[in-house]
Design brief:
Radius of gyration: 20 Å
GO cellular component, one term: plasma membrane
Protein name: DMT family transporter
Number of domains: 1
Order of helices and strands: HHHHHHHHHHHHH
Number of helices: 13
Structural class: mainly alpha
Helix content: over 70%
Organism: Chengkuizengella marina
Membrane topology: Multi-pass membrane protein
Shape: globular
Number of strands: 0
Family: Belongs to the EamA transporter family.
Length: about 300
């Protein structure tokens, strides 16, 4: 093999490796969100409320990201010289509002129905991508969506009784969480892709925190930060920050620009299997055979989505 051909082959291998690394990063970020649901449930059981948990998640996540930046001086860039408004909107709409809306939905609906509503982000993201690229989804994408949505219904054990007891307010919050998560998945790969991923994540969370607190105070007017012990707030706030802010935002900011929003949306379906496995291990919940079948179908859907 001559030298130029060998070099081209090595470049192709490197690109393939980068693609799979990006896929793994998106899977890690989505799985982290899935595990977070069990941690949030434990935080509620410890006596914390939605206002405390969501604020702690965002605030401690912001602090951890800036600490990481402090040890990575070469990644530093003046935030004022970045597309600050777009990063603020991305952080506020994608991370903060998604957390706020899903927590509000969980207040009025059971977890199963809230998860099904959140998972509408899969087809919403693909529609947004299709509009942006001005082309229809592929047959594999449409097939993957059907498989994943059917698998989701099985995996959460959704029943007719759940639908009959549905709260309109909870439904609206749940569907809004799907829309905001779709926007985050879609535009993370389009905004400020030349900025270091950790710095980008830190700017997004920092700029989005003040308006997020205002929204939470409006949504949860009867709640207060003065509830429970400080050590409890610090423990669960840090835990939620790592799983709900640090790992997902860095992983998505690294991975999504390389593989696009449509595939990232399908890979995001791994969040539910991760949530179920975490519930079994952390909360020691019982999972039925039909739910494991749903998990299997979701994994099949993710594989189908990767087809060209």
């Amino acid at each position: 093999m001559d030298f130029p051909a060998f070099c081209i082959l090595e470049v192709i291998k490197l690109k393939e490796m980068h693609r799979w690394v990006a896929i793994i990063l998106v899977l890690v970020g989505a799985s982290s969100y899935g595990i977070l649901s069990s941690i949030i449930k434990l935080a509620y059981e410890s006596g914390l409320n939605e206002l405390q948990i969501t604020t702690g998640q965002l605030f401690f996540g912001m602090m951890i990201l800036w600490i990481i930046i402090g040890f990575r001086r070469r990644a530093w860039q003046n935030p004022i010289k970045t597309p600050l408004l777009r990063l603020t909107l991305l952080g506020f709409m994608g991370i903060a509002l998604t957390s706020i809306f899903i927590n509000a939905s969980l207040r009025d609906l059971n977890a199963s129905l809230s998860i099904v509503l959140l998972f509408q982000f899969i087809w919403i993201s693909i529609i947004i991508e299709s509009v942006l690229h001005k082309k229809l989804p592929t047959i594999y994408q449409m097939l993957a969506v059907l498989i994943v949505m059917f698998g989701t219904i099985l995996a959460v054990g959704l029943s007719i009784e759940d639908l009959q007891q549905m709260s309109i307010r909870g439904f609206i919050y749940g569907f809004l969480s799907a829309i905001t998560y779709s926007l985050f998945i879609t535009f993370t790969g389009r905004v400020a892709t030349n900025i270091d991923s950790v710095l980008k994540s830190a700017i997004m969370i920092t700029a989005a925190l003040p308006p997020s607190i205002i929204v939470m105070i409006i949504l949860f007017p009867s709640q207060t930060y003065i509830q429970g012990e400080l050590s409890t707030f610090l423990f669960w706030g840090l835990f939620a920050a790592i799983l709900g802010v640090v790992i997902p935002t860095i992983s998505f900011n690294l991975g999504i620009p390389k593989i696009g929003g449509s595939l990232s949306a399908m890979l995001g379906a791994i969040e539910l299997p991760a949530a179920i496995i975490a519930a079994v291990i952390v909360l020691q919940e019982t999972v039925l055979l039909a739910q494991w079948l749903g998990v299997f179908l979701i994994l099949i859907g993710i594989i189908v989505a990767e087809k060209k």
